[in-house]
Give the backbone structure.
Amino acid sequence: MSSTADLSIGHDPEAKRKIVNRLRRAHGQLAAVISAVEDEAHCRDIVQQLSAVSKAVDRAGFLVVAGALKECIADEPEGGERFDELEKLFLSLA
């Protein structure tokens, strides 16, 4: 099986920017959840904020896997094993 080093986000600066932005958004949202819990906010507000964090992290994960899939498809000779590994990573996000 291919090494996990082969499964990077590649050298696409736009993809990297999108992933970092989503993770920064999740970081800020998680800080808001922590503050809400510390301040004993209404559970509805906490759950809404947790949902936002979860979605932001999931979307970042999907972007990482999508970028790796693009590279995998472009690199046909290794595609089979790498694709199987990427499929497992993708399904782990579900």
